[in-house]
Specification:
Protein name: Aspartokinase
Oligomer: single chain
Radius of gyration: 23 Å
CATH architecture of the largest domain: 3-Layer(aba) Sandwich
Structural class: alpha/beta
Keywords: Amino-acid biosynthesis, ATP-binding, Kinase, Lysine biosynthesis, Nucleotide-binding, Transferase
Largest sheet: 8 strands, mixed
Shape: globular
Enzyme class: transferase
Number of helices: 12
Helix content: 25-40%
Strand content: 25-35%
CATH superfamily of the largest domain: Acetylglutamate kinase-like
Distance between the termini: 49 Å
Strand order of the largest sheet: 3-6-2-1-9-11-12-10
Organism: Pseudaeromonas paramecii
Number of strands: 18
Number of domains: 2
Family: Belongs to the aspartokinase family.
CATH class of the largest domain: Alpha Beta
CATH topology of the largest domain: Carbamate kinase
Bound molecules: adenosine-5'-diphosphate, aspartic acid, magnesium ion
Length: 414
Amino acid sequence: MALLVLKFGGTSVGSLERIEAVARRVCTLQQMGHRLVVVVSAMSGETNRLLGLARGLDLDASPEEMDVLLATGEQVTIGLLAIALRKLGCAARSFTGEQAGIHTDASHAKARILTIDEQPLQQCLATGQVAVVAGFQGRGPDGRITTLGRGGSDTTAVALAAALKADECQIFTDVDGVYTTDPRIEPKARRLPRITFEEMLELASLGAKVLQIRSVEFAGKYRVPLRVLSSFDEGEGTLITYGEPSMESPLVSGIAFSRQEASLTILGVPDKPSVAAQILGPISDANIDVDMIVQNTLGDGTADFTFTVNREEFRRARTLLEQVADELGADCVQTNETMAKVSIVGLGMWNHPGVARTMFECLGREGINMQLIATSEIKISVAIDEKYLELAVRALHDAFGLAQGADVSGMNNN
Ligand code: ADP
Ligand code: ASP
Ligand code: MG
């Protein structure tokens, strides 16, 4: 009999009917003798609704109080699912993040799980009950409620699977696995029966929201057997593999994107060592993640310095950068709040320089201007105007032969 951690995302628990369907699935697994921890998200749309309420009062609301508010979404779902399970005669009890022993750091809105006291859940499982746990939330060092960032219930599930040494962590969502790109943008996208941990990590970090990046990091660190499946259909989904090459090892295995980008440029800063640290120091002190960075030296002793941040953090970053611009005597700060990032990912690309050329030619043919470029051994990312995002994703998906039925082996991207 297996110990399984199952996670159901927002759409999968989006109505009472869906919650009853989840309860039936869980009940069947319990009757088969499996020990089950079920992590749930807020019902679909609920977290955004709560965010909207707070924004109606204050655009810069305190992160501590935002977490108190946002964590209520998941609490509704654990109550409802536990009620639905009990109605079916399935012994179950609910746990908030804190009750499930999840301790985090103090970074409200994007807290990291530091430790898990697995005793409460072990005790629950030992009595034959299903443990229904609120995703996305934990207890900070000062005892306050924290949340783990958007999509954080994935991370709750994988972290619990690691702590409990579960046989498998199954992420049930509204698509039946990990695809070559978001199937909602490119209907020709193909499900990958397996994907390497490294590729999944890269796709998630570059915006493929099917798994939150931190859940993949946890999975890699503790080698958690991890699978993405549909909560609506049967099927084997996508298995995340460790240390095995991809089935096909294509040059490019997937395309990820993020709409949530904003860029900030500080123009005319003195071109001297340490200036980059002076610009980014306050941003980093404010716990704002900087993504892509470009510095252009102008030859007159000055430079322009551009970087991108998540749109959620744009307003705070701009305020800090304007202060830095004053201190450095820079010309001005320019911003673009409607950027997007599109990335190609593949373990096979690291020694194939032709991949970059294929990508840039493809975007050029579509008339899409790249504003920043970042590369690593297994990815190339470009920042573009958001209005071209869908076109870019589809064109690149075609250019790299990723579509259903495409002959990947015959591709020559050199
Ligand atoms: P949940 O509410 O279950 O956590 P999410 O909306 O967070 O679900 O994640 C699932 C969504 O991720 C899919 O509906 C799909 O639009 C999107 N997605 C983005 N990239 C991919 C990809 N490569 N493969 C599958 N889904 C993807
Ligand atoms: N409810 C949270 C969100 O919408 C967490 C999650 O769904 O994983 O981001
Ligand atoms: Mg999600």
